[in-house]
Fold:
Amino acid sequence: MATQRPELAALSVGDVVATRSIELDRATLVRYAGASGDFNPIHWDEAFATEVGLPGVIAHGMCTMGSVIGVVEDWVGDPGAIVRYGTRFTKPVPVPARGATVVEVTVTVGALDAEAGTARVDLAVVHDGTKVLGRAQAVVRLS
Structure:
């Protein structure tokens, strides 16, 4: 079933357009490390991570960033419609040895530009009640 692309005229600033819970586990970190070439031990070695002051093994920031933009991709129905995406990494996302950690994502319309045919969406990305990405925003072309 094809997703209908959102229409700019139907949106208002403040609309929540998507939400999702994203699970990250150690297998995700292994796959990301292999794909990215980022084998920093803070992403796989519990003892090393705690020795350097982290709460334990943490997710790669870019893995978290890449995972959460999928919520916007699914909402807009076309990854090519995302014309800009950026964020700041504010807190680490600890990933347990067993099971998964959950990151909650809420996507809200932050600005509309009818002339350009774009919407800026703001992503609230929270783990365990704490914002882990700051100023996470994407601009999507809708017309």
